[in-house]
Amino acid sequence: MTAVLTPSVAPSGGRRAAFEYWLSVYRRTWRGSVVTSIVSPVLFLAAMGVGLGSLVHGGTGRVDGLRYAVFLAPGLLAATVMQTGMGEATWPVMGAIKWDRTYLGMLATPLTVSDVLLGHLAFMALRIVIVATSFTVISALFGLVVSAGGAVLALLAAVLTGVAFAAPIAAFSATQARETGFILLYRFGLIPMFLFSGTFFPVSQLPAVLQPVAWVTPLWHGVTLCRDLALSRGTAAAMLGHAAYLVVLTVVGVVLAQRAYRRRLQW
Questions:
Q1: Of 25, 61, 113, 180, whose Cβ has the fewest other Cβ atoms within 10 Å?
Q2: Is residue 218 part of a domain?
Q3: Displacement of CA 265 from its chain's centroid (Å)
Q4: What's the domain range around 206?
């Protein structure tokens, strides 16, 4: 860590220094992320898209006029980056505060709390980009990409989706004293959204009383935006609305994280 964060670091370069620390750690541990970045998407697309897909809609294998695997891939892309954002913004944040005290080590240099936070968020965004890119390439190898342009736009939407989860969850993590909150977040947040936000089937198939609940979840906006861009469907106004929702969530998350980090790390 001292090789990256030294007392001579200028305040203006603090965010970059914090980012480079996390990047240097990842260079030594990246092999452990191969499962989530590559193997998991392959298994999900093969099992759900190809295997289960043949049984969908009375055996026709089609949803909304599309082959089920083609329908599934953009939604699963958004759900995968959601999991990545949550994973990067929970235990690593608590560890940097409570266990290995990485944040405190950074603050012993000229870095500010904002540098520490934004540098780490930048690394989280990089992890999300890696996962989203890997998933898109795998989808293309499965023949599930309708158009190259749509795939690129969906990838960008997926990155926005992942960051929209990472920022507010980092704020939440900075307030936690124990891991219990993360378990509840996964059990009552991630899993229900993963199952009922349009990833595997259209939200219109949910009971009418549950559809508005799905519409307000961040993942539904991410799934819908990724799917509409990947499949070149949907109106520009609707897609802008989904993107605006995710941008606002990101900004609010960063603001809340700034406050939570200052309260936790400054005395």
A1: 180
A2: yes
A3: 25
A4: 12-22+71-265
Enter the tokens of residue 253.
């998350």
> How far is it, in rounded angstroms, from Cα 154 to Cα 129?
12
Contacts of 134 (CB under 8 A, 6+ apart): 37, 38, 41
DSSP string, 78-116: HHHHHHHHHHHHSHHHHIIIIIS-HHHHHHTTT--HHHH
User: What tokens appear for 16 in the block?
Assistant: 């970059």
Cβ–Cβ < 8 Å for 162, 251: no
2-18 pLDDT, tens digit each? 444 444 444 458 899 99
Within a domain: residue 58?
Answer: no
What is the value of pTM for the model shown?
A: 0.90
36: in domain: no
DSSP H stretches of helix in the chain? 14-29, 34, 40-44, 56-59, 68-89, 91-94, 102-107, 113-141, 148-173, 180-185, 191-196, 211-215, 218-230, 236-265
59 band by pLDDT with thresholds 50, 70 and 90: low
- Extract the tokens encoding 111: 């870095």
In a domain, 43, yes or no: no
What is the per-residue pLDDT across 75-122, written as a single tens digit (0 to 9) for each? 999 999 999 999 999 999 999 999 999 999 999 999 999 999 999 999
